[in-house]
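seq as requested:
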Amino acid sequence: MTSYRVKFFNNLINSNGREFKCLQRSLIIPEAADQAEALEIAKREFERAECISNWHFRAHLAEVETVSMIRKAAEALMMHD
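struct tokens:
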């Protein structure tokens, strides 16, 4: 099983009229068979945390990444400091 990070975002428009993604919540799913399962687990956790029946009430989109990808990105950043 793999660990995943699922991030929930809203698409907003800034004062210049440009669209940007605003992070609403980030969840670590410690054990899931694949990204699809991690996303489904995270959706339910997000709904429970926000006390809502559908995650789309508080977020427009979700992104899934493996924890190993997160570690590699962090290590790359540390090497540049």
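The chain has a mean pLDDT of 89.
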